[in-house]
Amino acid sequence: MVKIGNAFFLFIGFLAVFLSAATLAGGGGGYKLSTGDVLSISVFNEPDLSVEEVRVATTGVISFPLLGEVKVVGLTAKQVEQRLTELLLDGYLKHPKISVSIKEYRLFFVHGEVRSPGGYNYQDGLTVRKAIVLAGGFSERASKEKITLVSENAPGEPAKVDLNHPVRPGDVIMVGESFF
């Protein structure tokens, strides 16, 4: 009979936590970074190069030690890891190991017939219903059938949506008024 030690189970547990954290952070999910997102960047065994919190500027760049400004807008967290690795390999480090996670997503917006219109921090799994709750709920004059959304990824005409429609960072939700 083969005995499996506690170290093996500890390793498997660590691996599961690491993979789920990477997925939630947008590392493999295809989430594209944009202005306003806040990143945490860790360079293994290089605390002077690690950045606890850096916001993507309106110019689409982050400020990174040694490298200066690095363009990250439109990239996934995994692509930023790869880009920083390439840049640090170019005369700075021999074997950089970099981890990038999204610490704070950019805002989404709710306006119209809600109690507290404004911008709110995106949360994973957000729907129109949850976004309206964050905005204080429907006002007395709100129409639950007149809800539209303009997506940051497809700007233009607002699309009619229901309460279960997913919301992404940068989206704008408009709750219309009921006439009765």
Biggest sheet strand order reads 7-6-10-8-9
CATH topology tier name of the largest domain: wza like fold
Overall shape: it is elongated
Mean pLDDT: 86
Rg over CA atoms, rounded to whole Å, is 21 Å
Brief write-up:
The protein is α+β, with helices and mostly antiparallel strands. It is built from 3 helices and 10 strands. It is 22% helix and 33% strand.
Features:
single chain, 180 residues, alpha+beta, wza like fold, Outer membrane lipoprotein wza fold like, 2 domains, five-stranded mixed beta sheet, three-stranded antiparallel beta sheet, 3 helices, 33% strand, elongated
What does this structure look like?
- The protein is elongated.
- The protein has three helices and ten strands, in the order αββββαβββαβββ.
- The protein has a five-stranded mixed β-sheet with strand order 7-6-10-8-9, covered by helices on one side. The chain has a three-stranded antiparallel β-sheet with strand order 2-1-5, covered by helices on one side. Strands 3-4 form a two-stranded antiparallel sheet.
- The chain has 180 residues and is of the alpha+beta class.
- It folds into two domains: 7-104, wza like domain (wza like fold); 107-177, Outer membrane lipoprotein wza domain like (Outer membrane lipoprotein wza fold like, Roll), CATH 3.10.560.
